[in-house]
Design brief:
By secondary structure, this protein is α/β, with parallel strands linked by helices. The chain is 39% helix and 20% strand. The mean pLDDT is 92.
């Protein structure tokens, strides 16, 4: 019996990841190629073609393709409306261009939504009916699963929980607002807090890692120092967890969701302060929700978006 395959492509600002999956979510092949440095539509499409050709040179016709893109898409999922990391795609009908190149079924979705779909398919959310997934890296994205289906709202942009206000007197976010969750709990927020701590004279193992080059501090530096018990870095992570707890309690009050999955590079670091995150979230919930709260960590890691893009192609066939 012939086996059906599906392609999942996760387009990031620096790397394009592509995987070939069967209908059960088993990954058969995987590759990564750099996102084109020459930011143009033609170079972008050429990169997609290269990825697909290398991924499945022996498959004809080309399997259905799911594509995850960082940014806001139109409701019909044909056009990129806004994409800070891929500005050359703004206003572009990516669906039409991709379909014409591959002559197969093509499906587009926001990258954080794809990550949620990936965890729903074969990850930490496979046994959950309802959950919200956060992808925490340089910024914060999220995807909502309700009744085992992706919920995108009236205009298709539901799930932008990285931009709910958690600190009205906080820091300026890249979106232009003040005090967004992304501005207070992302990798960028960790870098800012670490630099401020060092400039204020805090004693920290970071000084041995970066010396006086405070501008070179990364979330990885903070994570490794926190793992070694550095009190300054642990407090930075606890502060991020506190703001994330505010965000999760708001989600719970709004949607009655009790299960949260945290992914992304910075999300992994929050394992170090899991008890604090859980305690602070429960502190802000109604009693009826406290015992139902669960906080999971993404099983698929940074490949969740690629898996979800594959699932996007699969679910539209059945």
């Amino acid at each position: 019996m012939k086996q059906d395959f599906y392609i999942g492509i996760d387009i990031g600002g620096t790397v394009i990841k592509a995987g070939l999956f069967n209908a059960d979510g088993v990954l058969h092949r995987k590759l990564s190629i750099p996102t084109p440095r020459k930011r143009s539509i033609d170079h972008f499409l050429d990169a997609l073609v290269t990825a697909v050709q290398q991924l499945c040179p022996d498959l004809d016709p080309t399997p259905p393709i799911g594509i995850g893109i960082a940014g806001i898409l139109d409701f019909e999922r044909t056009t990129v409306l806004e994409s800070p990391n891929l500005p050359f795609l703004q206003g572009v009908k990516v669906f039409d261009l991709a379909y014409n190149r591959f002559n197969t079924s093509v499906f587009l979705e926001n990258d954080a939504n794809c990550a949620a779909l990936g965890e729903l398919w074969v990850g930490e959310g496979k046994d959950l009916d309802n959950f919200l997934l956060y992808t925490i890296g340089t910024g914060i994205g999220s995807g909502i699963i309700l009744d085992k289906k992706l919920w995108t709202g009236e205009q298709g942009k539901a799930g932008e929980f990285g931009h709910i206000i958690v600190n009205p007197n906080g820091s300026l976010c890249s979106c232009g607002k003040v005090g967004c969750l992304e501005a207070e709990a992302s990798g960028s927020a960790i870098i800012r807090s670490a630099r401020q701590a060092l400039l204020s004279g805090a004693s920290s193992a970071l000084l041995y890692q970066v010396g006086t080059g405070f501008d070179e501090v990364t979330p990885e530096h903070v994570y490794h120092a926190a793992c070694a018990g550095d009190s300054t870095c642990l407090e930075i992570l606890r502060q991020c967890a506190t703001f994330l707890a505010i965000g999760m309690s708001n989600v719970n009050n709004l949607l009655d969701i009790h299960h949260f999955i945290i992914g992304g590079g910075v999300g992994t670091a929050l394992r170090l302060v899991h008890d604090h995150l859980s305690k602070m979230t429960k502190k802000m919930l109604f009693n009826v929700s406290k015992e139902k709260l669960t906080i999971h960590y993404a099983a698929l890691g940074n490949d969740a978006g690629m898996f979800g893009a594959g699932f996007l192609a699969r679910r539209h066939k059945y």
